[in-house]
Design brief:
The protein is mainly beta. The longest helix has 9 residues. It is built from 4 helices and 9 strands, in the order H-E-E-E-E-E-E-H-E-E-E-H-H. A 9-stranded mixed sheet has the order 3-4-2-1-7-8-9-6-5. The relative contact order is 0.17.
Length: 192
């Protein structure tokens, strides 16, 4: 599968020493949270714009990112440990279901500068968030589902005049549907 990576990124991948950076961007209703697997704040060009990511240290775990040549839904699971209590309260109170989540792969060059335009490793919709507490620390696990999962959702649309007016208020094409329900239609035989 083709990748949209820069020449500098490709060169760094082929080097003898590869120093990766993993960043996450999570769109909670209270605001967007960005984390990376290091310490301090880090500015990266991700998704076409410059963004500041907050370091969480050994942030965690990231389940394997899989892909296939067929159309199938596969998600990932992120694990965050040693989370501040303010982030726990955001996780408990903010809406996150079906909101955007992204995982980025960045690289340092030999001068410890971040190579421009990090690679988007995974994009999807946040699904299930669990918090487990062990004494003084908390662990948050968050599932992000593939955007293909929307194909599996049932359509809530109906073939009614009211539903058609949601998108097209002046369209009366479904106006006669109720009258057709019990109508006898003679097809292919002579009438007298």
């Amino acid at each position: 599968m083709a990748r949209n990576i820069t020449t500098a990124f490709n060169t760094a991948l082929q080097g003898k020493v590869v120093t990766p950076i993993i960043g996450t961007e999570l769109d909670f209703s209270d605001g967007i949270l960005r984390f990376w697997n290091g310490y301090g704040n880090l500015t990266m060009v991700a998704g076409g714009s410059s963004k500041v990511f907050t370091g969480l240290g050994d942030f965690l775990g990231l389940s394997p990112v899989s892909e296939s040549s067929t159309l199938q839904m596969s998600g990932i699971t992120l694990s965050f440990t040693g989370i501040k209590s303010s982030l726990i309260s955001t996780a408990l109170s903010a809406n996150y279901t079906n909101r955007n989540g992204s995982v980025y792969l960045g690289l340092y060059d030999t001068s410890n500068n971040i190579i421009a335009d990090v690679y988007t490793l995974f994009q999807g919709k946040m699904d299930v968030l669990n918090i487990s507490e062990q004494g003084n620390t908390s662990t948050i696990t968050l599932n992000i589902e593939s955007r293909l999962i929307s194909f599996d959702l049932p359509s809530d649309r109906k073939y009614t005049l009211e539903d058609q007016k949601v998108d097209f208020p002046n369209d009366l094409g479904f106006e006669f549907i109720p009258d057709l329900q019990d109508k006898e239609i003679t097809w292919g035989k002579e009438t007298s």
